[in-house]
Write a structure and sequence with these properties.
The structure is a single chain. By secondary structure, the chain is an alpha/beta fold. It has two domains: about 170 residues, SGNH hydrolase (Rossmann fold), CATH 3.40.50; about 90 residues, no CATH class. The protein is built from nine helices and eleven strands. It has a six-stranded mixed β-sheet, sandwiched between helices. It has a five-stranded antiparallel β-sheet with strand order 7-8-11-10-9. Helix 3 runs parallel beside helix 4.
């Protein structure tokens, strides 16, 4: 009886000392993107740890390929990115939902950025109960506002204790749905541009040409394909110069590089859609 009690106490201590999701270290769930918006390129990819396992099927139904593995470290996620790039299957938008099993540094995020390269979007999902990881993600998003999209799950989920299991980290079914839909909304402008809904044609046929501007070392030609009399060229160039990960009041920013019709680099639509500004690379 005493021996059983001692063994039970030891197991309890080991469980508390193990990383998040240690009981599911061997659990792997991969969900393919089963629904893809029209004219989108390769489905975005989410690489996660045990905190994403229950949400993986929901993400798949929302058009996001999801690969979640218990106890996955950030370095393992970076290695997966490298393998996908080598196989030429790395999509335009990559989401890393890691950090529950140890702190992440800006240097590790920098390694992921070197693999994704300058023309892809790297999205980082903040990790609950890991202040150091969240701080590194915020710093990286601030430094790379053309390439790093911060998905602040910690802030969004605050006050929603019912979404989580007893550990306050792993989601239940309701939390999995909230988590998946939150990520889908965040990456949608970069992964699923509304090509058919906006119908803005080719840069060569744009209504007004507004010259060239520079953003983060890139030269971009600026056009106003819709509502040319409703906006000045100075305003259009200022919109294009603004880092795309920053919210633009009254406008929506779309990454047209994710579409099969790569006629534009970036498209900015006013909320009423009466004015559209487009940016194309200078070739």
């Amino acid at each position: 009886m005493q021996r059983t009690l001692i063994v039970g106490l030891i197991l309890s201590v080991v469980t508390l000392a193990c990383p998040a999701g240690a009981s599911a270290c061997g659990e792997l769930r991969h969900s393919h993107a089963v629904r893809r918006p029209d004219r989108a390129g390769r489905a975005p990819l989410l690489i996660g740890d045990s905190t994403s396992i229950i949400a993986a099927p929901v993400l798949g139904r929302l058009g996001i390929e999801a690969d979640a593995h218990g106890c996955r470290q950030f370095g393992q996620g970076v290695a997966m990115l490298a393998a996908r790039r080598h196989a030429r299957t790395l999509p335009h938008v990559v989401v890393l939902a890691l950090g529950a099993n140890g702190p992440i540094s800006t240097g590790q995020i920098g390694a992921a950025l070197r693999i994704t390269g300058p023309h892809r979007v790297l999205a980082l999902v903040t990790a609950r109960r890991s202040a150091a990881t969240d701080a590194a993600m915020h710093r990286s998003a601030s430094r790379h506002r053309d390439r790093v999209l911060l998905i602040d799950w910690v802030r969004y989920s605050a006050g929603h204790g019912g979404w989580f299991a007893g550990d306050g980290l792993h989601v239940g079914q309701a939390g999995a749905s909230a988590y998946a839909h939150f990520i889908r909304r965040a990456i949608a402008p970069f992964a699923f541009p509304p090509v058919r809904r906006l119908r803005i044609g080719q840069p060569g046929a744009a209504g007004k040409r507004c010259g060239v501007t520079h953003r983060n070392g890139h030269r971009l030609r600026v056009f106003v394909p819709r509502g040319p009399t409703r906006i000045t060229c100075a305003r259009a160039r200022a919109i294009v110069r603004r880092p795309p990960m920053l919210r633009l009041e009254g406008w929506r920013t779309y990454d047209w590089r994710a579409s099969r019709a790569r006629t534009w680099s970036w498209v900015y639509a006013r909320l009423d859609r009466k004015v559209v500004v487009g940016a194309a690379p200078v070739r």
